[in-house]
């Protein structure tokens, strides 16, 4: 609880939430040993992670096609978990009830403003448990994201897909990572699950070959600069790996 701060510049206290991280399956260990009560659902969790990764791979292939990369699987091959370790993590989140009154300056922030560190995030939320907000780029205001925007046509809430920082790097800032936060005041507890999809550790954050990105010119430069600043990269010439990017982001989040 409060060990992680997703917005260390904006908030003095760590986020009032709990998280349980589950690593991806590996050739040595199908899945990390889980404590009860999760241990009885190991097979289900493994299947869920595999399905999440397959969905991310499909989305990454679609992105490669849309960006007209010479090899449409440019992104997807870099996320092939059979080829090595990655920062991918499946996270169960729990926001306990709190009796702390909301500050007079605004809502009670349960996960500070941030963008996700990987390539894509799949977010799963429960009906009746709102709280997620997006920072709009046009007006700079926070907009709530309904759990199920079409309850009459969708029987279950859809999966929310966030673009993460690495896609901003790879596309020269053309794709912007989504800035979001979680706010709600006391009341009920809240659960959510996030599948943070990351590339293989040694993948470099270079610009993807793409005529579409070329055509975008330098319009992504502002976004790219924001990303560079987050991890202390000084300019175009400095290349870092996905592993180093994640290390630098986590260092700030956990105040290491
Ligand atoms: O709980 C949520 O809805 C979002 C959590 C989140 O954005 C994160 O953990 O990165
Ligand atoms: Fe997030």
From TrEMBL:
Family listed: Belongs to the iron/ascorbate-dependent oxidoreductase family.
PANTHER family attached to this UniProt entry: 2-OXOGLUTARATE (2OG) AND FE(II)-DEPENDENT OXYGENASE SUPERFAMILY PROTEIN-RELATED
Superkingdom of origin: Eukaryota
Region (Disordered), start-end ranges: 1-26
An annotated Gene Ontology molecular function: oxidoreductase activity
Organism per entry: Aaosphaeria arxii CBS 175.79
Membrane as UniProt keyword: no
The entry's keywords: Iron, Metal-binding, Oxidoreductase
Claim: Oxidoreductase is one of the keywords in the record: yes
UniProt domain Fe2OG dioxygenase: residue ranges: 85-199
Signal peptide: none
Any matching Pfam family: 2OG-FeII_Oxy
Protein name (Swiss-Prot/TrEMBL): Clavaminate synthase-like protein
InterPro entries listed in its UniProt record: IPNS-like_FE2OG_OXY, IPNS-like_sf, Iron_ascorbate_oxido_reductase, Oxoglu/Fe-dep_dioxygenase_dom
Bias kind Basic and acidic residues: ranges: 9-18
């Amino acid at each position: 609880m409060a060990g992680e701060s997703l917005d260390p510049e904006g908030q003095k206290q760590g986020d009032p939430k709990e998280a349980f991280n589950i690593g991806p399956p590996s050739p040595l260990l199908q899945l990390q040993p889980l404590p009860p009560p999760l241990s009885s659902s190991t097979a289900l969790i493994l299947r869920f992670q595999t399905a999440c990764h397959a969905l991310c791979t499909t989305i990454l292939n679609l992105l490669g096609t849309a960006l007209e990369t010479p090899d449409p699987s440019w992104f997807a091959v870099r996320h092939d978990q059979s080829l090595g370790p990655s920062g991918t993590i499946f996270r169960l989140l729990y926001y306990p009830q709190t009796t702390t009154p909301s500050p007079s300056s605004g809502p009670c922030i349960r996960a500070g403003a941030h963008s996700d560190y990987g390539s894509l995030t799949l977010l799963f939320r429960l009906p009746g448990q709102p709280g997620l907000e997006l920072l709009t780029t046009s007006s700079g205001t926070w907009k709530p994201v309904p759990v199920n925007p079409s309850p009459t046509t969708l029987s279950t809430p859809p999966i929310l897909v966030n673009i993460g920082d690495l896609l901003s790097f790879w596309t020269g800032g053309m794709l912007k990572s989504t800035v979001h936060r979680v706010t709600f005041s006391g009341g009920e507890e809240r659960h959510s699950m996030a599948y943070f999809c990351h590339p293989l550790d040694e993948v470099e954050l270079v610009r993807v070959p793409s005529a579409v990105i070329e055509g975008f010119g330098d319009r992504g430069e502002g976004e790219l600069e924001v990303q560079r600043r987050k991890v202390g990269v000084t300019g175009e010439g400095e290349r870092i790996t996905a592993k180093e990017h994640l290390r630098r982001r986590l260092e700030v989040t956990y105040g290491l």
